[in-house]
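Please fill in the sequence for the structure shown.

STRUCTURE ENCODING:
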């Protein structure tokens, strides 16, 4: 373990960044020494949560003035490319929120710049780190149901996401890009990379600009067929937001991740074991967000432990390119009405 805490700066001090700050504050081994936001009012408001940190409205100036080990970028995607390039040129490790890049060309450019300057690049893709999802991934990887042949990852909710993230109502590409990217990433973490993809989209809410429902069928290279479906237009008495529900069928049994954090393991003899896979909510978390907030803490803990061992993160830039390629392929498939072969790095 390095004796001195790593010196980090958080760039973009909006709605989601507070989770990232609080998670860093829970971890020994990291000091968030600076906050940066181009909006002075948001910066001043946010600085209340880390009064000891320096404040900057320009990331370039911050990187020039401070000695940092890493930056944690929590701005919208439109600001990712200039900030990641600045970080690479400054030689600091980078964590960047999803959706990582506006285009796959931008993603490749940022990945190449980080490699060229030998800086670590991690995309803050946290859904595969949610405790129930992680438990499902680990049981599958441990072989408890044998070889999988079918999967479903489903996120269906009527939760009003537009209240805290009003920009989501205005974006022409909505649910696949914002939420679907996470659910598709879970499918990759479970079943591996994808050879072919087909997608259908709908807009149910008439006052938003983009699609709020999508259904994607994936042919994974290792032989699994999966259905990944997501909706922000689903009315349910017990809304499971923000849980992703999972079904996996294997040749020796099946897994079912149900609402309320129960994981069922069915064997080939008709027996079922039910595990409690509920997240341990951090002290600063709040309902209904705590599964996501806990996954932020887990992702950042994983990043720190990998960083201290000199290892790349599971959701490094190259890995995330292959998730983002599914997003691009899904839009292309929906527009063209055909099956698409996603790009791969
Ligand atoms: N992983 C998750 O579960 C999750 C959940 C919600 C949002 N997000 C992602 O987090 C990111 C931020 O979303 P949000 O809802 O917090 O947005 P937000 O609009 O609330 O906050 C973004 C902040 O970034 C600042 N900013 C923009 N450009 C900047 C720049 N060049 N330099 C410094 N500051 C800049 C803005 O002033 C704003 O304060 C998005 O990419 C979003 O997709 C992830």
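FILLED IN BY: designer on duty
SEQUENCE:
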């Amino acid at each position: 373990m390095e004796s001195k805490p790593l010196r980090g700066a958080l760039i973009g001090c909006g709605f989601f960044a507070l989770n990232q700050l609080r998670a860093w504050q829970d971890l020994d081994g990291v000091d968030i020494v600076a906050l940066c936001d181009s909006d002075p009012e948001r910066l001043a408001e946010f600085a209340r949560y880390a009064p000891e940190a320096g404040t900057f409205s320009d990331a370039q100036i911050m990187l020039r003035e401070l000695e940092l080990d890493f930056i944690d970028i929590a701005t919208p995607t439109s600001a990712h490319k200039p900030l990641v390039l600045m970080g690479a040129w400054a030689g600091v490790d980078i964590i960047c929120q999803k959706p990582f890049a506006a285009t796959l060309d931008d993603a490749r450019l940022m990945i190449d710049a980080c490699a060229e300057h030998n800086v670590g690049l991690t995309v803050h893709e946290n859904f595969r780190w949610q405790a129930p999802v992680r438990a499902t991934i680990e049981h599958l990887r441990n072989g408890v149901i044998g070889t999988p042949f079918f999967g479903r990852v489903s996120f269906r909710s009527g939760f009003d996401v537009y209240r805290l993230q009003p920009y989501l109502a205005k974006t022409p590409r909505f649910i696949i890009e914002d939420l679907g990217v996470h659910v598709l990433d879970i499918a990759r973490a479970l079943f591996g990379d994808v050879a072919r993809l087909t997608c259908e989209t709908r807009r149910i809410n008439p006052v938003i600009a983009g699609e709020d429902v999508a259904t994607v069928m994936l042919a994974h290279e290792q032989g699994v067929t999966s259905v990944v479906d997501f909706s922000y237009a689903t009315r349910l008495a017990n809304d499971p937001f923000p849980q992703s529900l999972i079904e996996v069928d294997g040749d020796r049994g099946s897994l079912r991740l149900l609402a309320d954090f129960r994981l069922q393991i069915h064997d080939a003899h008709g027996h079922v074991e039910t595990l409690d896979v509920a997240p341990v909510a951090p002290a600063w978390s709040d309902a209904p967000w705590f599964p996501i907030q806990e996954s932020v803490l887990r992702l950042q803990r994983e990043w720190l432990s990998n960083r201290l061992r000199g290892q790349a993160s599971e959701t490094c830039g190259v890995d995330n390119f292959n998730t983002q390629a599914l997003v691009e392929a899904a839009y292309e498939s929906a527009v063209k009405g055909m099956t698409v072969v996603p790009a791969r790095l």
